[in-house]
Amino acid sequence: MDNAKLQKFNTLKQEIISEIKPTEYEQIKLEEVTRKLIDHIYNVIKKRDLKDISVQLVGSAARNTWLSGTHDLDIFIVFPENTSREELEAIGLEIARDVTKIADKYEERFAEHPYINLQVENFGVDLVPCFGVSDSSKIKSSVDRTPFHNEYVKSNIAGLFDDVRLLKQFMRGIGVYGSELKTKGFSGYLTELLVIYYGSFENVLYNAANWKPGIKLRLGNEEISTILIQEKKPLLFVDPIDPERNVASAVSLDKLCEFIDAARDFLESPSKQFFFSKKGNEHNKEYLIDRMERRSTGFIVIIFDRPDEVDDVVYPQLYKMERSVTEMLEMFDFKVMKSFSWSEDVGLGNKSVVFFELITSRLPNVKKHFGPPVWLRDHAQKFKEKYSDDKNSFNFYIEDGKYVCDVLRQHVNAKSLLEDRLKTCSLGKHINESINQNFDLLENDEVLKIKNPEFRLLLSKSL
Amino acid sequence: MDNAKLQKFNTLKQEIISEIKPTEYEQIKLEEVTRKLIDHIYNVIKKRDLKDISVQLVGSAARNTWLSGTHDLDIFIVFPENTSREELEAIGLEIARDVTKIADKYEERFAEHPYINLQVENFGVDLVPCFGVSDSSKIKSSVDRTPFHNEYVKSNIAGLFDDVRLLKQFMRGIGVYGSELKTKGFSGYLTELLVIYYGSFENVLYNAANWKPGIKLRLGNEEISTILIQEKKPLLFVDPIDPERNVASAVSLDKLCEFIDAARDFLESPSKQFFFSKKGNEHNKEYLIDRMERRSTGFIVIIFDRPDEVDDVVYPQLYKMERSVTEMLEMFDFKVMKSFSWSEDVGLGNKSVVFFELITSRLPNVKKHFGPPVWLRDHAQKFKEKYSDDKNSFNFYIEDGKYVCDVLRQHVNAKSLLEDRLKTCSLGKHINESINQNFDLLENDEVLKIKNPEFRLLLSKSL
Fold first, then answer.
1. pLDDT band per the 50, 70, 90 thresholds, residue A12
2. B365–A397: do the CB atoms touch at under 8 Å?
3. In Å, how far is B234's CA from the nearest CA of chain A?
C-alpha cells in the first residue's frame, strides 16, 4: 500500500472501531451485571455449603473481544473433576435455578448438559455447568474445553482486542460469521486464533487472500495428526489446547471462498460497506418481479410449517431436503439452476421455505424412453411388448442399436411433480412430519407472497 | 412352427413370389434386350478389329435373382489384363458410345472409370469396362471383382432364386435394402450370399433373429483376417472371392438392428405388409399438426438447394451436417431429441433438408456461466473483473468454490442461433457452398411447407 492508501485505510479502521468497540458505559454495565451474577452464584454455593466449586466468566466478554451492542455473557460453574455427571447436572441446575430469581426471564435448554439461559438487565446469559479438569487432554465433556480456550486467548490476545473486533465485524458484514449449521462459517474463537496467528486484522486479510482450500494452520509446532488431515475440511486450524480438534471444522468451502474473495476486494478498495451489510435492503415487489421476468426462468417454492426445533436441527434438514428435491426434479428433467433454504426465526414466524429456480418449469409432453439393445432378445422382446402398442407411447424406433419409445411424460410441470412426489423425497425426521401435515407450493411471482425481509434479501441476491 | 402356421407361411411365400418373380414376358424381353446389346457390342469390336475383348451380363439379371418390375442390366466389357488403364477407358468409352446409337437416351457417368448409362426399351443399362484378370486376387480396379461375384453366385445359387427374391423384397419392404450411403443397408450381393449361407429365406430370418452386432460370417473355412476383425463393423460377411473384403461393410448398426427386429416380428406373425411398405402414406397436414402439437416439442428444419451431386456424395455430407449442427445446438443448451436428413432426388426437385426436434426451442434469458475456483487468484481475478460489473451479467456469486455469473444468454431461441451460427458448423464441401449461397429455416408447423411425400413419410414416422 502506498502512503495515502495506508492512511485512508487506518482512518477507516479507526472509524469502524469507534462504532463497534463497546462504550465505557457498556463496559461498566457488563462488569456490573457479571459481578452481580457471580456474587449471587457464590452466595448460593456458600448457603448450600457446596465445596470446591468455582465460577468464571468465559467467552468474548471475558476476553475483551466482544462487540458493542452484543450483550451475551457465558458464565461457567466449574465442578471438581471427580464429580459424577448426575451430580454436576443436578447441582448445576439447582444453582442456576436459584439465579433465575434475579432474572427478568429464563429458559432451560439442553446441549451436552442441561443449562439455563437468562435475561438480566438486557443481557443474555448462559449459565453452564462444567468439569474443572486439570489438563485440557482430560476433558469429560466438550464444554470443559471452554475455560482452556478462555485461558489461551486471554494470555495471547494482549494488544489485539480491536483487531479481533474488526475481523468479527468484517465477517459479520460479508455473512461468514457464525459456526452454526445455518451459516457454516467462522466461530468467535476461530476469529481470535486467526488474529493471534497472523498478528493483526489486516494480516489475516492479506494472508486469506491467498488461501487455498485444504490450508492447514497451527500455533504450536507439533505434527498435525493423521485424523485431522484425513478429515479433509476446506480449512484446518488446530486447536492449541487440543491437537486432535479442528477449530474450523464448521467452515464450508463456499464460506471460506466468500471470505477469501471479500478479503481481496477489501484490500483492493477498503470501504465501510464490507462491515455493515445492507440489512432490510430486500428490494420492493416491483423490482423483484421485474428481475424474475427478465431472467424468464421458472421459480418454485415449497413452504411449510417450521418444525418446533432450534436452527441447528432445522437447517441441516432443510439443506438435506434441498439436495434430495433437486435430485428428484433433475430425475424428471427439470434442471435446477439455483436453490436455497430458509426458515423464519423461532418466535418470529413459523414457516420454512425451500426455493428453486429452474431452467424451465414446463417440459414437452413426450420424452424419449430408452430400452435395451435389440440384440438382447429376451429383454428387447419384453420392452417391445410393453411399449410398442402402449396408448401412452408415441412412436417406437431403433436408435444406436437400442429400442426407443417416445412416451408421454408423467409430469410436464414442476409443480405437479412436487405435489405428487415431494413426500417420496428423502427428508429429515422433523421436516418429514411437517410435510406430511401440510405444504404449499408457490410458483413464479406467487413467491412474493412471502414478505419476510430476510427471505426477500436472499431472493434478491439470487436474481 | 406348428403345421397350420407352416402352411399359412408357405401360402404367404407363394403369394409374394407370384408378385415379385419376373413374368415369362419380362424374362423374354430381358433376354432379347441383353442379346441385342451384346451383339451390338461384339459387332463394334469386330468392326474396329479389336482383339481379346469379351462382353458379359453380370448382376441380378445374369443370376436370375432380379425382381419383377426392376429393369436394370449390367453389361461389362472385359479387356485383357495387360491393357493400360488409359486404353481401357478410351476404348471402353468408344465402344459404349457406339452402343448409344441404339439407346433411347444415355448419360456418361464416372465411378472408378468413366462408364455409360443407357435407356433401351425401358431397361436401364450400365455399360462398364473392366480388366479381365485371371484371378480375383489380381484385380486392378474394384469393378473387376464383379465378374467373379457373378461366377460365384451362379455356381452356388441353384434352386435358391426365389429365396433370394423373397429376402430382397423383405429388405426393401422394411427399408434396409441398398448399400448406398443414403441407406447404409444390405446390397444385392450380400442378400445372395446370406441365402447361400443359410440355405433358405426363412433360415436367414431364423438366424438373423438371434444375431448380435459383431457377428462374423464366412462361406469358406479360412481364418478371418486381422484387418477385417479390426474393422469392427456391425456385420462381417467375408467376400468368398476376396478374403480381405467385408461384403457387409456398408451395413450400419441401426439397419442391422432393424433387420433383426423385423425378422423376429415376421416369424412371430408373418404377413404381406413386411414386403410392401405403405408408400405415399405420409399422413395429411391436419394429422401431422395434431401430432406435433401433442408432442409439444420444438421443430426446426434447415432447407437449402441440393448440391448438384449424386446421393452418394450428398447424403454423407447431410449426415455430417446433422451431427455438427446437433453438437452446436447442444453446446447452446438446445437439446436435440431427434433428427434426420433428406434430399429430393436429382431430377425430382432441388432441395435438401435437415430436420431437428428439440426438447424446447426457447430457453430462459439467463444462464449460469462458471468461472475458475476462487483460490486460483489470477484466473479468478480476471474472471471477476470481466463479469462482476458486466451489463449483461445478472448476479455474481460463489458456488462449490467457483465464481459463477448469471449472464444473458446469447441465443434464447434455436432459430436465431441457427441464423447466426449455422455457417460456423463443420459442413461438407458441397453443402457448405450451398449454405453460403442461401438457406431457410422453418419452425414448427412451417415445416409442413415441405409437401414432398417422402419427406412427409419420414416426418410422420418420427412423430
1. very high
2. no
3. 10
